[in-house]
Specification:
The protein is mainly α and 143 residues long. It is 72% helix and 0% strand. Helix 1 packs parallel to helix 3, helix 2 packs parallel to helix 4 and helix 3 crosses helix 4. The mean pLDDT is 75. It contains 7 helices and no strands. The chain is elongated. The protein has 2 domains: 73 residues; 61 residues, no CATH class.
Length: 143
């Protein structure tokens, strides 16, 4: 999918469900899941979801499923990036562990999260690796 196609899809989603704005983490996940797909197939899937009369914005997985139903060949995806999958796990783990963290640790985690959102892909992968290692260490400390 091209950048122009992605922007058109995001504009369609925003116009169809104006009160349902994806948080940055969901938008990043959507881009990583839908980006490798055929842009026209994703756009058609989003339009079909709009026509279904959905009250709320569909999550990225629902859009992927609709693409698969409409155009199975559009889902010729590369294997998922393990670091990106670990990001989802590490964010969930971080949220669960915040009740055991000091304010300074929470501030450091928030700073890393902001840095991740602004970094290039290569830097994000490096920072994610560091984050995953930190989460693993924190999990061990909580046990």
């Amino acid at each position: 999918m091209t950048g122009s196609q992605w922007r058109t899809i995001v504009a369609t989603i925003t116009a169809a469900w104006p009160s349902s704005i994806w948080p940055d983490s969901t938008r990043a996940l959507a881009e990583s899941l839908l980006g490798p797909l055929d842009g026209d197939a994703v756009r058609r899937a989003v339009v079909e979801l709009v026509r279904d009369g959905r009250e709320f914005c569909p999550p990225p997985g629902v859009i992927c499923k609709r693409v698969q139903e409409m155009a199975p060949s559009a889902l010729a995806l590369p294997p998922p990036d393990p670091l990106e999958l670990d990001l989802v796990d590490s964010e969930a783990a971080m949220e669960a562990m915040q009740s055991h963290m000091t304010p300074a640790q929470i501030a450091a985690a928030d700073a890393l999260s902001r840095e991740l959102r602004q970094a290039s892909r290569e830097d994000r992968m490096r920072l994610l690796g560091e984050s995953i290692r930190n989460v693993a260490r924190a999990k061990e400390m909580v046990k």
